[in-house]
Amino acid sequence: MKTFLLAGLAGVLLMASVQAAEEPSLGVGDPAPALDVAEWVKGSQVSNFEAGNVYLVEFWATW
User: Fold this and answer.
1) What is the DSSP string of 2-54?
2) What are the φ and ψ backbone dihedral angles of 12, each rounded to 5 degrees?
3) HSE toward the beta carbon, residue 13, CA cutoff 13 A
């Protein structure tokens, strides 16, 4: 039983360390990462962002 728990704990720690290494870190003032859109619900894709304009991106989740 102890071996199973230790193996599970080691697996969780390993997965957490791998996930933390893959996540990009952003700071205040950094450029936003590129968006990967599967489907546009309303409107059309913006090809160029123009300085001085405001763009709204709305995210939805089903959790």
Assistant:
1) HHHHHHHHHHHHHHHHHHHHHS----TTPPPPPP--S--SSS-----PPTT--
2) -65, -45
3) 6
Buried-exposed string 1-35: b where 16+ CB fall within 10 A, e elsewhere: eeeeeeeeeeeeeeeeeeeeeeeeeeeeeeeeeee
**Six-digit token pair at 6?**
């230790």
> Cβ(55)–Cβ(49) under 8 Å?
yes
Q: What is the pLDDT of residues 49-63, one digit of tens each?
A: 889 988 887 777 787
Q: What pTM value is reported for the model?
A: 0.30
Q: How far apart are CA 20 and CA 18, in angstroms?
A: 5
CB 33 within 8 A of CB 26: yes
